[in-house]
Here is the input.
Amino acid sequence: MIESGARSEGITTIDLGYRSCPRCVAAFLVRTSEGPVLVECGPASCIDALRAGIEAAGTTLEEINHLFLTHIHLDHAGATGTCTRAGATAHVHERGARHLIDPTQLMASATRVFGDALKRDLGALEQSDESRIDSMNDNDRVKVGDATFTALETPGHARHHHAWLMETGGNRHLFSGDVAGMCLPGTRFATLPLVAPELDPPTWLQSIDRIRSVDADALWLTHFGLIERHGDFLDHVEHRLRSELQFVEELIKSQGDQASNALLGPYRAWHTQEARKHGVDIELLDLHCTDQHYQANLAGVGRWIEKRP
Ligand SMILES: [Zn+2]
Here is the structure.
């Protein structure tokens, strides 16, 4: 992976410093012949870092006319209201669009999931004017100067998820949102956000296949950055998705009368051991995978088990 802030063919990775954690959440500034655009904008709590990253790249938030969102979870799209007020049009999955215009329901569900941590870690999504929200369907395209962005329906982590394929100058870049997992910085180890309420693992596996079939020249993860040799990495993500699901599902089934927070310890211990096998520094792992990450995954898989046919 390149260093955060470094540039590759007109793409700048901005490290938003989410929870003071380096290389956890990214936004991407992409240069086109018609001006800069953003892919992802990060949470509202990181707006200063977003502005600073854009300015360090020699432009301003006010000059951004297009924002491409992979989905509306607050770590990806929380700053949308600020970006659209500054003049951007946000291109987003049709199922997510209305929540950006009226964030009441989205913020209520985020409050249930994150509690007190919501304000501190993510901040509040502000509403966007309807005229600034462009509702997208599978294979819809947006042309900005010499770059074409194509929305690829990639559900599984969320039902309303698009990966964005950007084609420019003969190169094809894929921004995968959360579908290709989260890569621990400096490693090739992927971990998965298996969160409620829309987690659907079989569909997720199909979405990984779709990304694979695109055969892009470069893969960019929101968590985090450019992935080298991404064919191998996608195989690894698929393997991790299957093994993490299997472990969590068996853990939940063996739960008996234990309280659900009793599962956190065994889950964290197993995941730590898996990460160690891939040479991940455990301090780094703990910084990225907090108790909240494990709890959210346990709740997400638990809910999927209950509702699946
Ligand atoms: Zn995410």
The longest helix spans residues 230-253.
